[in-house]
Amino acid sequence: MARMHTRRKGSSRSRPPFRSTPPEWCDTNKEELGKHVLRLYGNGISPTMIGLTLRDQYGVPSVKPILGTKLTSYLRENAEVPEIPEDLANLMRKAIGMRKHLASNKKDLHNRRWLNLTENKIRRLAKYYRSTGRLPSTWQYKPQTAEMLIT
């Protein structure tokens, strides 16, 4: 599939094989893994970094076969998660940084274009999250209030 904002084609990459059970060499059980996840999330680590930490330090290849649910849905059931999903918040942080840059560099046309593309990504992702119920149906991205939502 082609990239959305460039003329290049997409690159192939490795994908993990489909498994419904954890591998034999993984000796972590459900209760132990759940405690690790909640402890790491309580320390202020994002779900993405929790997955990387579990992979690198605890030898857990994937959380889903062990817990039975995805990491974010497990956190939603057992902890207080922020209203705005992590990927949307990261895009909003990126747009805020671009707007700050444009305030002092008004003639940076390349940055202006990438700001436009990033904000379009934010709107598309917000539309998806509104349709799936992760965001309220009245939620709208506004650059003026984005910094208050993120901090």
Automatic annotation (TrEMBL):
Keyword Ribosomal protein belongs to the record: yes
Residue stretches of biased makeup (Low complexity): 13-23
Sequence segments annotated as region (Disordered): 1-26
GO cellular component: ribosome
SMART domains, A to Z: Ribosomal_S13_N, Ribosomal_S15
Comp. bias (Basic residues): 1-12
Subunit structure: Part of the 30S ribosomal subunit.
Family as reported in the entry's similarity comment: Belongs to the universal ribosomal protein uS15 family.
Protein name according to UniProt: Small ribosomal subunit protein uS15
Organism: Candidatus Methanocrinis natronophilus
